[in-house]
From TrEMBL, chains A, B:
<comment type="function">
    <text>Catalyzes the conversion of L-aspartate-beta-semialdehyde (L-Asa) to L-homoserine (L-Hse), the third step in the biosynthesis of amino acids that derive from aspartate (the aspartate family of amino acids), including methioinine and threonine, the latter of which is a precursor to isoleucine; production of homoserine leads to a branch-point in the pathway as it can either be O-phosphorylated for processing to threonine, or O-acylated for processing to methionine.</text>
</comment>
<feature type="active site" description="Proton donor">
    <location>
        <position position="228"/>
    </location>
</feature>
<dbReference type="GO" id="GO:0004412">
    <property type="term" value="F:homoserine dehydrogenase activity"/>
</dbReference>
<feature type="binding site">
    <location>
        <begin position="11"/>
        <end position="16"/>
    </location>
    <ligand>
        <name>NADP(+)</name>
    </ligand>
</feature>
<dbReference type="InterPro" id="IPR001342">
    <property type="entry name" value="HDH_cat"/>
</dbReference>
<comment type="pathway">
    <text>Amino-acid biosynthesis; L-threonine biosynthesis; L-threonine from L-aspartate: step 3/5.</text>
</comment>
<dbReference type="GO" id="GO:0009088">
    <property type="term" value="P:threonine biosynthetic process"/>
</dbReference>
<feature type="binding site">
    <location>
        <position position="213"/>
    </location>
    <ligand>
        <name>L-homoserine</name>
    </ligand>
</feature>
<dbReference type="InterPro" id="IPR011147">
    <property type="entry name" value="Bifunc_Aspkin/hSer_DH"/>
</dbReference>
<comment type="similarity">
    <text>Belongs to the homoserine dehydrogenase family.</text>
</comment>
<dbReference type="GO" id="GO:0009090">
    <property type="term" value="P:homoserine biosynthetic process"/>
</dbReference>
<dbReference type="InterPro" id="IPR022697">
    <property type="entry name" value="HDH_short"/>
</dbReference>
<dbReference type="InterPro" id="IPR005106">
    <property type="entry name" value="Asp/hSer_DH_NAD-bd"/>
</dbReference>
<feature type="binding site">
    <location>
        <position position="119"/>
    </location>
    <ligand>
        <name>NADPH</name>
    </ligand>
</feature>
<keyword id="KW-0791">Threonine biosynthesis</keyword>
<dbReference type="Pfam" id="PF00742">
    <property type="entry name" value="Homoserine_dh"/>
</dbReference>
<dbReference type="InterPro" id="IPR019811">
    <property type="entry name" value="HDH_CS"/>
</dbReference>
Length: 370, 370
């Protein structure tokens, strides 16, 4: 009943900071003993793993003399440190680092559970995905990753509940990117053109509002959505090798795909995007002629084993067409739910709601390991 | 790691039957040792609690000579039988019996966990609600009741995730009855009168399709919705004494409220309901004049501590207005989610989806007690 939990956190960006705030307010928080950012690692001294790092004052904690400070540690070193703690250890990975994700098996085999919003471990090579869950079984550890799809929305947990109770999921479909949701809700709202802004203007506005990645091409290339669909498809049993082993429509015009990935390339991209506005206007107007609107969606057709990411037309009175702001919507069609899907909708991006998925996963892991 | 789980089930109605089917297909099912219906109880013989009752052949299992058959047992007797099993015991209550729900504390104090879609324990007197959760702590047992609101939809679990991670829920609102959803989606569809059926005709049609309770007054009096709202309000911390301690609008015309609750009373009710169609037509048309539609909803306003159940007007392009069939929709407004709520939508009634919530809860209880 009185298992002591020891927590390591890697990453103090937007999600990491929000997570630390939520952690500081938990009534029964685990003991924070490792906090790592890219260049610095803060540790509770061994062998006592005491004192813990105060989550509420993590910014100034590195000045505390009784905590250990080092540079970056390797995954092996961190796994050894955490698994030697005198209780159950959990690592929260709040980065989007593919190298760290590739090391999850090291942690799991050592009995360290993983909680993370980092999509990389679950959406890269299928072999890594499998190794992660096999390592968890071997190490008697748990892996929770609710926030890899739809941030704090209960997407992964609902999908697991459906499959674990024997329902047959036939189709998953939805808007999985807050950025692309905002772009199309603004560019092609229900009821016609509205303000009639051009595509490049809408993208520029979204970038200014902070709704896109610093380089908007990271949203427009569709790869973030492709990674989420890869995760969902694998959870219903499809063997998706990588996130580019199925059709992903990029919204980066062909002529601009050669620009390099530097900040300079991003600048040129934004300057030249307007040259291709006519293409997007055509797509929008062709949908309007059919009484529909265009949206950027992802779908998994389970019986056909097809995963797709790209533009699609929707009836104006459909739930997808009616989305507001930067909301996500995810529809699960299953045998039990019949013709009307089980739908989950709401903010699918943002530090607080993403961190909520992480905190909620952490509580579930603690409940199960208690 | 190899905790043995012993399961007792009470109730083999629509949900109970669907649950037994799902249980029979679970890869790691608990051992079924008690199956009780109103007049008969089937038990695995003590002290070995072997053999188990085959979930797949439960209908014919009472003919098996090596199982024990008795009449109805008291809650105390069942609790003693289950808690003496050589492992962790779980009781699934698939009835809607208030007396059984009032005995949950007896089971929980004896260490028997409870999984149930029965609303009575959580929506009757506040003192029972509190005693249930206090008894669970004392007995080191768990209580899961996802299917008490929205059937298998992840409503209770999502609300618990929001509150346990420190979000501030400000408002909960939605359509919580599949029956009333169907009635209003048919009677007052978006876009005007449609087929133009009278209210009493729509109710009669729903009754024939099996969408209402055998006595439709059990849906129209709003009490089922009031019980669900009572549960949600209590989970966000409001001290709701009983499900009739807040305003609940009944759709039973005043003039018919004196009819007795017999089958004869139900028959007279259905015969006379048409006399009051003009009232419902007025309500519908007054909404249409404002460009709105009328729906039967429940809401919890947390800062104001107000719970309400009744008719309300909604914009035609709102998610509530756009509901289809007999779907439920539940919107959570919270501090983190801001102006756009977290929304869950889908079938909120039916044996299979209700049983799914029960099965999913059972798996979670087993994961936590392992």
């Amino acid at each position: 009943m009185s298992t002591q939990f020891y927590l390591g956190i890697i990453g103090v960006g937007g999600v990491g900071t929000a997570f630390l705030q939520q952690l500081a307010r938990l009534p029964e928080a685990p003991k924070l003993i490792l906090l790592a950012r890219s260049t610095q690692t803060l540790l509770s001294p061994t062998p006592t793993y005491t004192p813990g790092i105060p989550a509420a004052e993590w910014k100034t904690a590195s000045a505390t003399p009784d905590l250990t400070k080092t540079g970056a540690l390797s995954p092996e070193e961190i796994a050894k440190y955490l698994s030697s703690a005198p209780g159950r250890a959990i690592l929260v990975d709040n980065t989007s680092d593919p190298a760290l994700a590739a090391s999850y098996p090291i942690f799991l085999r050592a009995g360290v559970s993983i909680v993370t919003p980092n999509k990389k471990g679950f959406s890269s090579d299928l072999s890594l995905f499998r190794e992660i869950f096999q390592s968890a079984i071997r190490g008697n550890a748990l892996v929770y990753h609710e926030s890899t799809v739809g941030a704090g929305l209960p997407v992964i947990s609902t999908l697991r509940d459906l499959t674990s109770t024997g329902d047959e999921v036939t189709r998953i479909e939805g808007v999985f990117s807050g950025t692309l949701s905002f772009l199309f809700n603004t560019f092609a709202p229900v009821g016609g053109s509205g303000a009639g802004k051009k595509w490049s203007e809408v993208v520029a506005e979204a970038k200014e509002l902070g709704y896109t990645e610093p380089d908007p091409r990271d949203d427009l290339n569709g790869m973030d959505v492709a990674r989420k669909l890869t995760i969902l498809a694998r959870l219903v049993g499809l063997e998706v090798q990588t996130p580019d082993s199925f059709p992903v429509e990029s919204l980066i015009p062909k002529e601009l795909q050669g620009l390099d990935s530097s900040a300079e390339g991003a600048k040129t991209f934004m300057e030249r995007l307007g040259e291709f506005d006519a293409q997007m206007t055509d797509i929008k107007e062709s949908a309007e002629k059919e009484g529909k609107v265009v949206r950027f969606v992802g779908s998994v057709d389970v019986p056909k084993k097809e995963v797709r990411v790209g533009l699609q037309k929707f009836d104006q009175d459909s739930a997808i067409a009616g989305l507001k702001g930067s909301d996500n919507i995810i529809s699960f069609y299953t045998k039990r739910y019949g013709s009307n899907p089980l739908i989950i909708q709401g903010a699918g991006a943002g530090g607080d709601v993403t961190a909520m998925g992480v905190t909620s996963d952490l509580l579930k892991v603690m409940q199960r390991l208690r």
